[in-house]
Amino acid sequence: MEKKKANQAAAFAVVDMEIGNRDLQQCADAVIRLRAEYLWKHKRYADIKFNFTSGFTAEYKKWAEGNRIKVNDNQVQWYASGKGVDYSYKTFRNYLDMVFMYAGTASLSRELPAVLYTSLQPGDVFIKGGSPGHAVIVMDVAIHPNTGKKVFLLGTKLYACPTDSYPWSIQPAATFLLVRADGNGCRETIHSGMDF
Fold this sequence. Notes:
It is built from four helices and ten strands; from the N terminus they run βαββαββααβββββ. By secondary structure, the chain is an alpha+beta fold. The radius of gyration is 17 Å and the shape is globular.
């Protein structure tokens, strides 16, 4: 039985997006998913690539061309699957499931360049790499016309049973949502690289 998060007010809205049934989509995966979905929709297939924690680069274009990834301990390599070229959404989601298994906040934090707080824009990420780590994506930015004060609309994934250290995080995979401000601030390092 799923236990609801005690503080339901933390969620402003829930994004209508399937998360699959394999318990894979964690916080970094939700960030990866948003970028990948955007790029796939715009047929920018060559731009869809993410590093595994091992450092291996998983390129969607290679996957769609029929190659697959074999992981044996820390040895990761491409092999020809004989499946042929397929850029369908089903193949894309299978690729993402592979990325979700072997990428996370540790690898994503190494991929994204740091940006100044003053230049934050949609697609930038607050991230703390590690295990556990956490990632929160900037969905929108507004600037007060008189004071110049910036406010951010943030997105992350919601878990049924959060931890004290990461109130929006910890396994299992769960819904992606827009977060309400709680006054505590966000303490993660800011990284960029998500061009929405």
